[in-house]
Design goal:
Elements (H helix, E strand, L loop, with lengths): L2 H9 L1 H16 E6 L10 E5 L6 H8 L5 E5 H4 L4 H7 L3 E3 L3 H16 L3 E4 L17 H8 L4 E7 L24 E7 L10 H15 L2
Parallel strand pairs: 1-7, 2-5, 2-6, 3-4, 3-5
Antiparallel strand pairs: 6-7
Helix pairs in contact: 2-3
Amino acid sequence: MDIMKKLYFLRDREAFYRFLAKIACLAVYQPKYIGFEQIPETGAAILISNHVSYADGLVIASGVNRPVRFIIDKDIYNAPLVHYFMKYNRAIPIEPTRDSVIKALEEVSSGLANGDIICIFPEGQLTYTGSLGRFKTGIESMVKRNPVPVYPIALTGLWGSMFSRKYLGSLKRWVPKKFSQKVHAICGAPIPAELVSINRLQETVMRLKYKVGN
């Protein structure tokens, strides 16, 4: 890599942060990506995934070869240090108020119109049980407004980690279970906009999830 390419890399903050995300992910997990080659390198698309831990976004971002804009809880978005990275990765903050939801949907629509990839966790919160929660209908509104393909992703191997809610309130949460935990991220075939429904999306993620276990 010549000096000009190195300088460009340093100027491209999103590329630099994706690089850091991959390093951080590999430091904690042994991620295996299945089907991620289907995710287009250009053009608008929506990624959806089950929500197992606070590290879910890190795992997904590390497996996609382009910037991914995540819809994220506003309190987490504004957390110290996290806010810095979320801002420069153009994450979209949201909270359960009408104005916030409308603003977030407008930002999603604008991003998709500009060819971005948006990632959403349709359950709306981390799982408390390790099981897949009921998807919210917001994803249907997004696709209706911007008819783009949806790529379903299932994450496994993250339940029980310190970033999940399995040991919420217990000291066990901070005891490492194993070094370099194996994690699978499975991406299914894209679902055309006209076939998107929360039932179909939920069934697809569930099916992918149980291909390799919890």
